[in-house]
Design a protein that fits this description.
2 copies of one chain form a homodimer.
Chain A lengths: L9 H12 L5 E2 H10 L6 H13 L3 E4 L8 E4 L10 E5 L5 E4 L2 H14 L2 E2 L5 E5 L1 H9 L15
Parallel strand pairs in A: 4-7
Antiparallel strand pairs in A: 1-3, 2-3, 4-5
The first copy, chain A, binds a DNA duplex (25 and 25 nucleotides) through helix 1 and helix 3.
Chain lengths: 155, 155
DNA sequence: TTGCGTGCAAAGGTTTTGCATGGCA
DNA sequence: TGCCATGCAAAACCTTTGCACGCAA
């Protein structure tokens, strides 16, 4: 955590720029790689991993693991907003990842800590369930939907 | 989801027995495989995965994903323990599973449903974090940390 | 006998590592 | 000039899938 975080390189800037421009959504290494390649700014996969690791260590980026089969998700953390903690809802039907920025959850977290001595880690905790769209669809159509695809947009 | 859960085989019994005997800790496929092989009860990896998948579907076993590098973790759920109605806290350090019978959580669940339209599934949802004992230990023991994860206690 | 269950190996995907080269300071 | 950073490919893992054979019902 010293002053020096390594050299300032084109690749580092490119990745950090991408992260800050997508701070409202979760991104995967694959997503970053594809996007940058499409923009003509190809960066090697290993380099992306290495930078992301460093950024996570420095607290600039957070790492989420939703599923063991899917790749890890990363998200930029705004440095000035000290308490940018939020939890996540993951729909078991469509795989959508929803950000839950809600005071109720934070209250719960502090309650659990003071009453139960347990420090909840919002980085790792994911609420599983069924999202609004899917429960509405469930009532209307009953087609087989076996998609395990992730579409993690929506901020 | 018919009544039949498949044939009763030696492998299925072996795996289920292992799960029930380790219900207090989370286990990995690798751990199961190694243990059974050591006991002279070798079961193929694919078979373990296939059974675990079924058990998860049936709600007999829970699946956790702590890290994308590590494999998934599994844990047996006692059918008569009423675990379907309350939430769980899992310590990332010691793997302990804590039953959280707390009105605050239920309130949160109904709030999330009414306000955010998301129906949380208590069976799948686990709060990750650090338990009281482990956070006390962390303060006392500050020995070598070659662990590349973990140091993320903020807030 | 029928058809699911099993084991092995191969495939598919994500992340890490080794090594020679390139680029920042 | 001295190192760190990068890229490529291979390796290391975890998980799934295909296929032939075994075994429960």
């Amino acid at each position: 955590m010293g002053g020096s975080n390594g050299y300032k390189t084109k690749q580092r800037d490119t990745i950090l720029k991408y992260m800050t421009e997508h701070k409202d959504s979760h991104v995967t290494v694959n997503g970053i790689s594809d996007y940058l390649t499409g923009q003509g700014n190809h960066v090697g996969t290993a380099t992306i991993y290495r930078h992301l690791d460093k950024l996570v260590e420095q607290g600039i980026v957070r790492k989420y693991t939703v599923d063991s089969t899917t790749g890890a998700c990363f998200q930029y953390v705004e440095p000035d907003s000290g308490c940018h903690e939020h939890f996540h809802l993951k729909c078991e039907k469509c795989g959508k990842l929803i950000h839950l920025e809600c005071s109720h959850v934070k209250e719960l977290a502090s309650h659990v800590y003071s009453e139960h001595g347990f420090a909840i880690d919002p980085l790792r905790t994911v609420f599983y369930g069924i999202c609004r769209e899917c429960s509405e669809n469930e009532n209307n159509v009953q087609s087989d939907n076996n998609s395990q695809k992730e579409n993690m947009n929506n901020g």
